[in-house]
């Protein structure tokens, strides 16, 4: 088919004559696809019509993309624009994860065979050894606007202004007026020529907090504009935050929840459950997660597969999957203790970005997974505690995943397990095209 040729339309009969006329109008460009929800007042009907429009325009079948069984009103103006259905991802359960004396059944949404089973084995090893301990080190979401002046001297003057403790109190009051939960903690500044980057760090209750901190930052910028009328605001986000990108500032200073999680795995459990030796795990961790990652020039990637577990829990609980990038920053440490008999393992994760309100957390499936963990919604008695607890569960799950995968590699089991459980046996050429 030449570039100029259009695919043959794939036509599925509409449910009514009225819908058929609307479909034709959208195909012909008379009705914008994005306006269907407001025009029809029925989000599901709009999604159904839009799906049929796509089939006719592209000539490709969307038969395998489900439409039924989803509340499209719940995503309107919040989670997704111009929906045509939803993608199904299976959710498995790992656990119980014994963490800080409490048991958690961890929901993991994934299509990678072995991932849930492996994490579950790590949970079993942790449980049999008395559980893991997790400590929250910091809690602060960030946003860093970029502002420009005529000279570097003027940029430096504003830097000194916002770093002055007395001036900071005033800025904090301005910032905190934007929300009941937002509380400005500090402002970290960096200068590049005549450009100033101000990294605002703020507690955000049980929300992940990006919108909350942005609103507070805007209040402060409006205030500073009166003090520094020659200040030119280039953008409310100048990438010194840094969101959805691997960045040293997050690895060093933290973003969201900074957490360390540890456990001592007994020699007996290492041998019977993990099928390996303490000394072999310690050596592998040094040569793979530390030396190997250093040889690769890793930034926050001193681990075996933290991202696997973070992504699976994020998707299941309605977090922003793109923030898996910095949330998966992790260094895994292993050391022989108790005269070399037992294994001390820890994961240090400085940038876990999670919330239990807002965004995808309010969707039915994701809300159910949060409820399973006991962290659904906002904690009214102790604002922020649900999100902090979720961050510790993420870290504890990563600890379990690291422990199990490293053991599999150490024992030479990785390839065999993935060949058995992570290969498709279906003929994908038989699916609809």
TrEMBL record:
It is an enzyme of class 1 (oxidoreductase). It is found in: Endoplasmic reticulum membrane. Gene3D superfamilies: 3-hydroxy-3-methylglutaryl-coenzyme A Reductase, Chain A, domain 2 (3.90.770.10), HMGR, N-terminal domain (1.10.3270.10), Hydroxymethylglutaryl-CoA reductase, class I/II, NAD/NADP-binding domain (3.30.70.420). Its EC number is 1.1.1.34. It comes from the Eukaryota. The keyword S-adenosyl-L-methionine does not apply. Its main location: endoplasmic reticulum. The keyword Transmembrane applies. Pathway: Metabolic intermediate biosynthesis; (R)-mevalonate biosynthesis; (R)-mevalonate from acetyl-CoA: step 3/3. GO terms for cellular component: endoplasmic reticulum membrane; peroxisomal membrane. It catalyses: (R)-mevalonate + 2 NADP(+) + CoA = (3S)-3-hydroxy-3-methylglutaryl-CoA + 2 NADPH + 2 H(+). It holds the Pfam family HMG-CoA_red. NCBIfam families: HMG_CoA_R_NADP. This is 3-hydroxy-3-methylglutaryl coenzyme A reductase.
């Amino acid at each position: 088919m030449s570039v100029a040729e259009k695919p043959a339309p794939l036509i599925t009969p509409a449910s009514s004559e009225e819908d058929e006329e609307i479909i034709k109008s959208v195909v012909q460009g008379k009705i914008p696809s994005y306006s269907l929800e407001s025009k029809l007042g029925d989000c599901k009907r709009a999604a159904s019509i839009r799906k049929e429009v796509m089939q006719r325009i592209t000539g490709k079948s969307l038969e395998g993309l489900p439409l039924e069984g989803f509340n499209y009103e719940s995503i309107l103006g919040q989670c997704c624009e111009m929906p045509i259905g939803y993608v199904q991802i299976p959710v498995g359960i790992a656990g119980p994860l014994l963490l800080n004396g409490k048991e958690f059944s961890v929901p993991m949404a994934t299509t990678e065979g072995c991932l849930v089973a492996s994490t579950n084995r790590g949970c079993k090893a942790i449980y049999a050894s008395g559980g893991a301990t997790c400590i929250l080190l910091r809690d602060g979401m960030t946003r860093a606007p970029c502002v420009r002046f005529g000279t570097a001297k003027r940029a430096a003057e504003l830097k000194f202004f916002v770093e002055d403790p007395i001036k900071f109190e005033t800025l904090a009051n301005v910032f905190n007026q934007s929300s009941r939960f937002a509380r400005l903690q500090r402002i970290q500044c960096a200068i590049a020529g005549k450009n100033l980057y101000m990294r605002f760090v703020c507690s955000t209750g049980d929300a992940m907090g990006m919108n909350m901190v942005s609103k507070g930052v805007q209040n402060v910028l409006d205030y500073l504009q009166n003090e520094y009328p020659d200040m030119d605001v280039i953008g409310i986000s100048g990438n010194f935050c840094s969101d959805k990108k691997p960045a040293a500032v997050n690895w060093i200073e933290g973003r969201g929840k900074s957490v360390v999680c540890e456990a001592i795995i007994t020699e007996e459990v290492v041998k019977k459950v993990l099928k390996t030796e303490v000394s072999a795990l310690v050596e592998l961790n040094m040569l793979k997660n530390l030396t190997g990652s250093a040889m690769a020039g890793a930034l926050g990637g001193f681990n075996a597969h933290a991202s696997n577990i973070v992504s699976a829990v994020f998707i299941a609980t309605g977090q922003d999957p793109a923030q898996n990038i910095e949330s998966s920053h992790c260094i895994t440490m292993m050391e022989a203790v108790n005269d070399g008999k037992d294994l001390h393992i820890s994961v240090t994760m400085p940038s876990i970005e999670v919330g239990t309100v807002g965004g995808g957390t309010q969707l039915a499936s994701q809300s159910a997974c949060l409820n399973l963990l006991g962290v659904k919604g906002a904690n009214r008695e102790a604002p922020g505690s649900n999100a902090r607890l979720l961050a510790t569960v993420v870290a504890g799950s990563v600890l379990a995943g690291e422990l199990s995968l490293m053991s599999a590699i150490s024992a030479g089991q990785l390839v065999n397990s993935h060949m058995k459980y992570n290969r498709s046996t279906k003929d994908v050429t038989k699916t609809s095209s």
